[in-house]
Amino acid sequence: MKVVIYASARRHGITDAEIRAVLEHPIVRYRLAPRTGPQAKLLRMVGDPDGGALIEVVVDRVGGEELHVFHAMLLTAAVAREVLEATGGNLDLSDGVSRSQRTQREKR
Fold first, then answer.
1. CATH code at 10?
2. What is the pTM of this model?
3. Quick one: which of 18, 37, 94, 106 is 20 to 30 A from 73 by CA?
């Protein structure tokens, strides 16, 4: 499957390698309701590419053969709550919520 990573997905300091790792081995993956149009096939995936911080990635599945990644960042509390709801309360990722942005984490 072809992966297209937009510049907007890199805005929060997540690397292409980290994005690809989340896509290949997500902890959770579920559909999102599209805001822009009913033809969009949006998926949110959350993973820990290096066994460290959890990363959330949002893709649009285009034509069944391409994933267009337009969002990636460290896991937020809102998405951790969304995951809990999407999994019927079976997956609680709240302990993995980022307390800071990537750029602040890298300065340590």
1. 3.10.450.530
2. 0.86
3. 37
